[in-house]
Amino acid sequence: MPREPDSSLNRIDKTGRQSHGVRVNVLSWVVEERSRWILWCPVFLACGIAVYFQLSQEPAIWVGPVLISILTSGWIFISAIRRNTIVFLIFLIPVLGFTSGQLRTYLVSAPVLEKKTGPIWVNGIVNRWEPKARGHRVTLSEVSIDLLMRHKTPSHVRITIKGDSPIVRAGDKLRIRAVLYPPAAPAMPGAFDFSKQAFFKRLGAVGYAVRKPELLRQSEDNELRTAIARLRQTLTERILRSLPGTTGGFAAALITGERGRIPDDVLSAMRESGLAHLLAISGLHIGLVAGILFFVCRFLLSLVEPIAIRWPIKKWAAGMALFGSFFYLLISGMTLPTQRAFLMLSLALLAVMIDRRAISMQMVAWAGCAILAIVPESLFNVSFQMSFAAVIALVAVYERGSFLPITRAMTPVFRLTFYIAGVLLTTVVASLATAPFALFHFNQVALYSMLANVLAVPITGLWIMPFAIVAVVLMPFDLENYPLMAMGSGIEAIVSIARFVQELPGAVYAMSAMNGWLLSAIALGGLWLCLWQHTVRYLGMVPIVIALVMLPGVPIPDVFISASGNQIAVRDVDGRLFFIKGRKGIVIETWLRRTGNRVQNVSQNPKIENSVMRCDGLGCVFYKNGQQISLLWHPAAILEDCSMSDIIVATIPVSRPACQTSENVIDRFDLWRNGNHVVFLDRDRVTIKSIGSTAGRRPWSRYPREFKKQR
After folding, report:
1. 210-267: per-residue pLDDT in tens?
2. What is the per-residue pLDDT across 95-150, written as a single tens digit (0 to 9) for each?
3. How far lies 648's CA from each of 578, 641, 665, in Å?
4. Spatial distance between the Cα atoms of 242 and 501, rounded to a whole number of angstroms
5. Where do runs of H (alpha helix) occur along 81-193?
6. Looking at the predicted structure, is the pLDDT value of residue 576 above 90?
7. How is the chain split into domains, by residue range?
8. Is 117:179 a contact under the CB 8 Å cutoff?
């Protein structure tokens, strides 16, 4: 009788066939999606840039070029013997991103003011003029500062001038008596780092004027950059002269990108209604300008029968729209969202001119690669992140729904319904795509943004932007008043919509600060979901869901101390902040926002483990999570509090030998050396973080400072 096959062998054979089938399926999916591989180039480039910027120490300048040389040599060698080179590219592209970050840091490196200076005389050439609610703000280049050596003089200085002052133009040379400060460090670990942004703008000092500036010499510079800056300033002045107040500030923001004249309450209403994107010149504005110019030019050309019959008027109209959008890019300030939008728009219009598909994910990828290679620090810019998130999500939806075009047979009612549905879909997709980044950077999301956008976007596209174009075209003839007034009526309607939505109950959802790793997981999951077309793309939901589940568990600091010691806050059991010292300023606003609080939610009578905080003229003492914390600002309290407290936070110097009983001490020297501090209080341990301990020693870091004095 023949023997039966061994069941264990059957299992092994079956398992082998299954694993082989899985490998075949994965391989077939990878081959099937080979046209989408190129879309991951900006992602790998961004990974290399992120690695460079997350280092705690500045790497040697030769690291990036050496790695590129090694990987390029390996790529060339493997290509010569006809082997698969994709592995080398996977490693080479991140190294290119790493090197671009190194190169950019080296090229923009410039002196930064070390400490508060002034009042002191500052001479410089006006590089940029910005209108403000009261006065204006100027950025100076070719700076010279009295009593400051040349090699320590910042390349650019920004000074706020309040009140009346002589009219200046870009290129004019000024002499200003001012108080100067180094660019501000983050308000707390993980918060927005203005000093890093200023470093890459070559802005080495900021300050305010203590008297009216003196005009030393009018502009004699005829460079293109100066001419563009003067043109922007002239356009802004004429807009504000025709439309004073809020409407003029709003109109200037839409045309020249200058938002300094928009009141804070209007800015708040726009943010909390989900309409803030209307103030940031980006894809919507560039697209509207190009679209209006394209259709108007094509319509006018079609009226001339010989031209319409014999010549490609569609391509001519695309060329005119490209020229008009480039002019808009120049006068709008060339911000990152505007550059991204123009790059994509120019590719789309060029595609029309050479009879190719106008919109594709490949265009987004090439635009992302271009911006990241030239300005790698933009990866951490909120406008870059939100604009690309919205565009990638919208293009992915467009690719899936491109089989639903509008045909001429549709009735006007159906076209209107289709348009409203398109606005709703666009708003929902863009809101979902940008919500994680809004939570990370602003710690709030507008819940009624869909309602606000349905009402406001048509007004912007059909009323405000057409009149804005007409106003700019008529300015050389001094005929801009009437179109600007018409534009102003649309702006008033937008502001009314923003205020209405802002006042709705629960209009804003506030949340405490998000961990950067969770945002990265959500971003990578979203990219996996949008860039692939196979059903495997739905695996991108896994990291998104995991990150959302972990979101509420992100720890929140319990004690906040500023570097100056002038602001101190503690968080009570209700999650509200109680300010022991200081109640106003950007530092206070940042603490409130990153703890999920708003200004009206400040604690007046803190409850900390059901015990009232005890304060006197020497300091304060309170208990939380089994820990006793002493906040001191007078030397007389040091000995007593050190003997009975677990944590000492002092705005004065504390002798370590005199305070040996306390394991955790933060004193005036710690604040000076490492900047703002936060303290996390758990029942089993205390965690102290500072700007100096998290920022590392990078060219843009103000902290940690050298400290040689014995204490």
Report:
1. 988 888 888 776 678 888 888 898 999 899 999 988 899 999 999 998 888 899 899 9
2. 999 999 999 999 999 999 988 997 999 999 998 888 887 778 999 999 999 888 88
3. 18, 8, 5
4. 28
5. 86-108
6. no
7. 25-108, 117-221, 235-510, 516-553, 559-695
8. yes
Asked if 525 contacts 543 with a C-beta cutoff of 8 angstroms, the reply is: yes
Of 9, 109, 11, the C-alpha closest to 58 is 109
Asked if pLDDT for residue 602 goes beyond 70, the answer is no
* Two tokens, residue 133: 């609610």
Rounded to an integer, what is the distance from CA 647 to the centroid of its chain?
36
Residue 239: both structure tokens together: 């807009």
- Both tokens of 646, joined, read 């677990």
Per DSSP, the three-state class of 584 is coil
Q: State the first-to-last Cα distance of the chain, in angstroms, to the nearest integer.
A: 93
- CA–CA distance, 539 with 528 (Å, rounded to integer): 8
Tokens, residue 245: 């107040």
CATH class of 117-221: mainly beta
User: From CA 301, how far away is CA 430, in angstroms rounded?
Assistant: 35
Cβ atoms of 159 and 660 within 8 Å: the answer is no
DSSP one-letter string for 188-226 = STTS--HHHHHHHTTEEEEEEESS--EEEE------HHH
Token pair of 338, please? 């505007």
Compute the average pLDDT of residues 483-487. 94
264 token code pair: 């804070």
Give which of 360, 383, 374 is closest to 437, Cα–Cα.
383
